[in-house]
Structure formats: structure tokens, C-alpha cells
């Protein structure tokens, strides 16, 4: 509005400027300030001013195209810094200014700002959905947790169907509708149910929940959401994925339960009636041993970390011997045996676990650990491992400070295995009067266990030995030969 003092020429100029702006807008041209240009004279000051202008341009950026422009400007600034004749810092002065380094740092910070300003994209939604699907598959849920996870997926699918106006969004709802009609789970009942790591019979299967999430991810990909034009849709979907992640995080996992709750849920304490032994875990363990419940013994071994319960679990398996041999118990004991656990090696022997032969044979020559050798030799003998005959025979011929401690057990192991290939090395030990009498007696015992006529005759020849323990084996061999002759 004019006050009568305005210069007509000025008014005319303002009108022309306004008209030019309107014409530019009608032509689709931007009315924003033009993009900055790099100064002709590249100095530290001029380049910093250029970067200030680029930073302002970044603050005003509203679209991906604007951000692309900022990236191009930063490329230009980087080229300017590279070509500029800037003073180099004094290498001997740690506090000296470094103009080039400072400018490069500013450019790097601005590039980070560009990346932070970009997006979010449809691919971010797909990645979040795929992460949620992986969580569903990889997690062991309790019954209550399974129900809560299903609720979280249903809520997300409903939100996705509202946000994406494509058929696939509805398809995800149809997947869940069909599944829920087939598995009419009562959420309240599921939440009150006893915790169990097994998928509840009346719950929507995890596989179906994952399928529904995959359907949403496909729908997002097909929608080809544009980061600028579909910003609201992307924002809504990302908020829904955040809620989904929070829902799954809050749902109860099996690992969330205390150890005693896990044991209770898996029926470990169900065998208890009136009991006198404490702790109650030990009382239950004894009952499981008497009933041959190997899985429950292994459950206790895995869950109860006290040395007391670990020892009693292993002792239970040892007492059960072959009755305790299952695929699961062998896997557990072999894992321990591979770590040179002598208790586990002993149990594998009692189980006659042929699966352990390969592992145990590797321990035969470990002369630096005689206790390990003793446990290994005995176990190989009880297993009847013919693959161990030669390694054990080699131990009979070796000489060392610890060999005398373990060689009798090597001889006895050969006897338990009962392979005729051991006759000659055992006979050589028995015939060597310079060897220890206990070792020679062990060789005689082993030959009697092999029991061939040749083996018995070798031992019988030593019935008149001056050593009582050796002659005793010889006399027993003579009686066995006489008994065979009488039968014939």
C-alpha cells in the first residue's frame, strides 16, 4: 500500500522484479539462491567460505536431487583443495596449522551430513522386516512368547496393509487370517500356559508368521517407494517395523527363564514324589537314572553348572554304561573327550562306544600324560578297538620313565581287544626276563584273554617261573589247555 511518497520508478522496478519471479515460478524454475561456485583464487579463506556456502546449501536441501547437488559441490571443493597452493605444516611442530588437512576434514564432515540426510528408503523397510523374520526363526520361544510374537506380527501386517495400497499388502493379511482360522489360539490361555520350548499346538506356526513378513517385504519392493514422493508411507512403515522389533524383543524367549524354570518346564522334576536327598536336583537325577531317562540326565548336565551336579550326572552315565549310550550322550561325551577329559573317556569305555575309537587312539602315544594314557588304554580295551592294536603294541616296546606306569595297562587293553595280532608283541614281553614282573604278568593275562592255542601255550611255558605273578598266569594257561584237551 502507497503513502504518496513512493518513487514511481522504484515502484515500477519492484513490480518488474515480482513479475520476473512469477514468470520464473510459472516456468518451473527454482526461486532459491543459486548454488555456490568455487572461487577463482583458491586460498584457505576462500575455500572455507565456499564450504560455508555448501553447508548452507545442505541445510536447505529437501530432496534427494538437492543432496546430489551438494555431493557434486563437495566433489568440486575437493578438487579445489587438491589444486590449491596451500602452505604445508611444519613436520617438526606437532601443533603447526595444516590448512589442507583442515579443509579435507570439513569436506568429510559435510559428506557425512549428506549421507545422514538421505533416505529413509524402501530398502530400509525390507531390511528391517527380514531381520524380524530371522529373529522369529532363530529364537526359541516360550508358549507365552510365541503368542506375543504372533500378536506383534499381526499388528505389523495390519499396519503395512494400511500403508501400502497394493494387493500384496492384503495378501499378507490373508496369510495370517487363514492361519489363525486353522490355529485358533487363545492369547490369554497361551500366556497362562506352562512355559515350553516346543511350539504350542494351537498357535500359528512360526513358519507362517515368517511367510506373512516375507509377503510384506515383497509388497514393499513391488511398490517401488520413492524417497521424496512416498516419504510419509516410508515413515509409517518404518514406525511399524520399529514396533515389530520392540514387540519381538519384549516377547519371552526360552533363555529368559531361570534354570530351574527351564528344568521344570521340561519335566525334570516330574519324577519327584517324596524324597530325602537334597538338593532336589540330585534326588531327581537319581530317579532319572533308575528309569533310564538319558535325555533328562543330559539336560541336568547342560543346565546345572555346579561341580557337584556335574560329577553326579557323569557318574550316573558311568553306572549306566551301555544303557546310557545314545546319540546325544555320545555327542556330549565325545566333545569332552576331545578336550582330554579323563572322566568322559572312562565313561565312553563303559559304554563300549566304538565312535570314540578315532579320538582315543590319538591319545595313546602321549607319554607326557600317563594319567590320560591309563584312562585311554582301559577305554580302548573295553571298547574292543582293533584299530588300537598296533599303537598299543608300540607302547610295549617304548622305553622311558613313565612307560612302566602305563605299559601293564597297554598289555591288558590288548587282551581285552582280543586280536591275535597282539600275540607276538605280548609273547616278546613275557619272554624278556629283564622286564618288570608286573608287566610280564599283564602280558600273560592278556594272552590268556586272547585265548588261541598258540597264546595259551606261550603263557603255559612260564608256569615254573620264579616270579609268583608270572607263574600264576602260566598255571592258569596250562589248566585251560588241559581242559581243552579233555574236551577234545
From TrEMBL:
InterPro entries, per the entry: ARM-like, ARM-type_fold, PBS_lyase_HEAT
SUPFAM superfamilies given in the database record: ARM repeat
Compositionally skewed regions (Low complexity) per UniProt: 27-36
Any matching Pfam family: HEAT_2
The organism's place on the tree of life at top rank: Archaea
Stretches the record annotates as Disordered: 1-104, 182-201
Residue stretches of biased makeup (Acidic residues): 17-26, 42-52, 61-79, 87-97, 182-192
Protein known as: HEAT repeat domain-containing protein
Organism whose genome encodes this protein: Halorubrum laminariae
Amino acid at each position: 500500500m502507497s503513502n504518496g511518497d513512493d518513487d514511481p520508478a522504484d515502484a515500477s522496478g519492484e513490480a518488474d522484479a515480482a513479475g520476473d519471479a512469477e514468470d520464473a515460478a510459472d516456468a518451473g524454475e527454482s526461486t532459491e539462491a543459486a548454488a555456490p561456485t568455487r572461487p577463482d583464487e583458491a586460498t584457505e579463506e576462500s575455500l572455507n567460505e565456499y564450504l560455508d556456502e555448501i553447508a548452507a546449501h545442505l541445510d536447505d536441501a529437501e530432496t534427494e536431487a538437492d543432496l546430489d547437488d551438494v555431493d557434486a559441490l563437495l566433489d568440486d571443493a575437493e578438487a579445489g583443495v587438491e589444486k590449491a597452493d596451500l602452505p604445508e605444516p611444519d613436520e617438526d611442530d606437532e601443533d603447526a596449522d595444516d590448512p589442507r588437512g583442515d579443509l579435507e576434514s570439513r569436506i568429510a564432515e559435510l559428506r557425512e551430513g549428506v549421507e545422514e540426510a538421505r533416505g529413509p528408503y524402501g530398502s530400509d523397510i525390507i531390511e528391517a522386516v527380514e531381520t524380524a523374520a530371522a529373529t522369529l526363526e532363530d529364537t526359541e520361544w516360550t508358549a507365552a512368547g510365541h503368542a506375543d510374537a504372533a500378536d506383534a506380527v499381526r499388528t505389523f501386517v495390519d499396519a503395512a496393509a494400511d500403508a501400502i495400497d497394493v494387493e500384496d499388502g492384503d495378501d499378507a493379511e490373508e496369510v495370517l487370517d487363514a492361519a489363525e482360522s486353522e490355529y485358533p489360539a487363545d492369547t490369554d490361555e497361551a500366556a497362562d500356559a506352562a512355559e515350553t520350548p516346543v511350539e504350542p499346538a494351537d498357535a500359528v506356526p512360526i513358519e507362517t508368521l515368517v511367510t506373512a513378513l516375507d509377503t510384506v517385504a515383497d509388497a514393499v519392493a513391488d511398490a517401488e517407494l520413492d524417497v521424496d514422493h512416498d516419504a510419509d508411507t516410508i515413515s509409517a512403515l518404518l514406525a511399524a517395523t520399529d514396533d515389530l522389533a520392540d514387540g519381538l524383543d519384549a516377547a519371552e524367549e526360552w533363555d529368559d527363564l531361570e534354570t530351574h524354570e527351564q528344568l521344570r518346564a521340561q519335566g525334570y522334576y516330574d519324577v519327584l514324589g517324596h524324597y530325602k536327598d537334597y538338593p532336589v536336583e540330585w534326588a531327581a537325577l537319581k530317579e532319572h537314572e533308575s528309569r533310564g531317562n538319558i535325555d533328562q540326565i543330559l539336560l541336568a548336565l547342560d543346565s546345572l553348572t555346579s561341580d557337584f551336579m556335574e560329577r553326579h550326572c557323569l557318574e550316573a552315565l558311568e553306572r549306566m554304561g551301555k544303557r546310557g549310550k545314545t546319540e546325544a550322550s555320545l555327542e556330549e561325551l565325545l566333545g569332552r573327550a576331545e578336550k582330554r577329559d579323563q572322566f568322559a573317556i572312562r565313561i565312553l569305555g563303559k559304554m563300549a562306544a566304538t565312535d570314540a575309537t578315532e579320538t582315543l587312539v590319538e591319545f595313546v602315544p602321549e607319554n607326557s600324560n600317563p594319567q590320560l594314557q591309563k584312562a585311554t588304554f582301559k577305554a580302548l580295551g573295553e571298547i574292543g578297538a582293533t584299530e588300537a592294536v598296533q599303537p598299543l603294541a608300540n607302547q610295549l616296546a617304548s622305553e622311558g620313565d613313565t612307560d612302566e606306569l602305563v605299559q601293564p595297562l597297554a598289555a591288558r587293553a590288548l587282551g581285552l581287544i582280543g586280536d591275535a595280532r597282539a600275540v607276538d608283541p605280548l609273547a616278546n614281553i613275557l619272554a624278556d626276563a629283564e622286564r618288570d614282573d608286573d608287566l610280564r604278568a599283564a602280558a600273560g593275562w592278556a594272552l590268556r584273554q586272547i585265548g588261541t592255542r598258540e597264546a595259551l601255550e606261550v603263557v603255559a611255558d612260564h608256569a615254573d617261573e620264579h616270579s609268583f605273578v608270572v607263574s600264576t598266569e602260566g598255571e592258569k594257561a596250562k589248566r585251560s589247555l588241559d581242559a581243552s584237551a579233555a574236551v577234545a
